[in-house]
Amino acid sequence: MSDQVGIAIVGVGRWGSHLLRNFLENPLARVVAVVDPNPDNLTRAAAQFGLDDRVVLTHDFQTALQIEGVEAVAIATPAETHFSLITAALKQKLHVLAEKPLTLSVAESVQLCRLADQQHHQLVIDHTYLFHPAVLRGKAVIQAQELGDLRYGYAARTHLSPVRSDVDALWDLAIHDIAIFNEWLGAMPCQVQAKGTAWLQTNLSDVVWVTLTYPSGFEATIHLCWLNPDKQRRLSVVGSQGTLTFDELSPESLSIQRGQLNQQDQQFIPMNQRYESLTLPPGEPLQQVCDHFLTCVRQNQPSNISSGWLGAALVQILVALSQSLQQGGQIVSLQPLSR
């Protein structure tokens, strides 16, 4: 392998354009090809990033796989296309960075992970929040037991549009907060539950309430809605010694609120209340994703942050939540995926 990893960017819509920018700027990457079935997207990308004739522009994915020098692909296409695209790339012995969710099916996700293992090539999923400085610092806070005994968690991800017509608010929004809770707790939920309501489109819930139960007994509740003008991107974990909050829309995005209750006779009196804003290093999370992927490729080692298997586990959680939603909120139990 040369000093630079030759990469093809597949899909240059909104998110794919961000991937293209990051890989063009990365000294360890060499963009060999850009693939998109929409010629307008190719024209726009070429003009926006000043791509010269050394970068092949093509609408045909199979053509890109055969281009000399392509060692890896970054896929930013709709989730329903992921299985066929990733399968083709892995069979060509190319490393893959794929946008989330990995697929829409547990069986397909597991099949892709097993194929990557068999091919001895890396499958990394772009769960960008796992590379966010606030999530990384928050994980360190919890691991250092600064919150004491963990009690419960809650999150809200709400806004007024965009409203999708292909999936509900659960599949559109939930994966981010589930990934963060899993990362902070160092565990996967063993039971899930979801309830929702649809107002705009039949059978596509506009608001969903998710409950995740972890083996320790910790429960997290997530409020998801694309029909709410109160825009929120906020997640908290409550412990016996304080509450850790990641508020993406706040200038102080990561904080700890301290305080305890002291019983005096029949009353509980708040004591030692204080607010701590945690300093975070600068950096774009997606840049960290790209750096990490290139390291995995160069070392041919699985991701220890956002592997294909982690992506498959998140798909399993979403599928179970969909099942609960369709069953009116029945609790669904989860078992670890078989490798």
Write the layout of secondary structure elements.
Blueprint: E1 5-10, H1 14-25, E2 29-35, H2 39-49, E3 56-58, H3 61-65, E4 72-75, H4 82-91, E5 95-99, H5 106-119, E6 123-126, H6 133-143, E7 150-160, H7 169-185, E8 191-197, E9 207-213, E10 219-225, E11 227-239, E12 242-247, E13 254-264, E14 267-277, H8 285-299, H9 308-326, E15 332-333
Parallel strand pairs: 1-2, 1-4, 2-3, 4-5, 5-6, 7-10
Antiparallel strand pairs: 7-11, 8-9, 8-15, 9-10, 11-12, 12-13, 13-14
Protein name: Gfo/Idh/MocA family oxidoreductase
Domain GFO/IDH/MocA-like oxidoreductase: 139-244
GO molecular function: nucleotide binding
Number of helices: 9
Uncertain spans, ≥5 residues at pLDDT below 50?
none
Question: Which architecture of the largest domain per CATH?
Answer: 2-Layer Sandwich
The chain-level structural class is: alpha/beta
* Major β-sheet annotation: 9 strands, mixed
In the CATH hierarchy, the third-tier topology of the largest domain is known as Dihydrodipicolinate Reductase, domain 2
Q: Helix fraction?
A: 25-40%
How are the strands of the largest sheet arranged?
A: 14-13-12-11-7-10-9-8-15
* Percent of residues in β-strands: 25-35%
The count of strands amounts to 15
* Helix and strand pattern: EHEHEHEHEHEHEHEEEEEEEHHE
Describe this structure in words.
With 339 residues, the chain is of the alpha/beta class. It has 9 helices and 15 strands. It has a 9-stranded mixed β-sheet with strand order 14-13-12-11-7-10-9-8-15. It has a 6-stranded parallel β-sheet with strand order 3-2-1-4-5-6, sandwiched between helices. The longest helix is centred in the C-terminal third of the chain and has 19 residues, at 308-326. The mean pLDDT is 97. GO terms for molecular function: nucleotide binding. Residues 6-126 form the Gfo/Idh/MocA-like oxidoreductase N-terminal domain. This is Gfo/Idh/MocA family oxidoreductase.
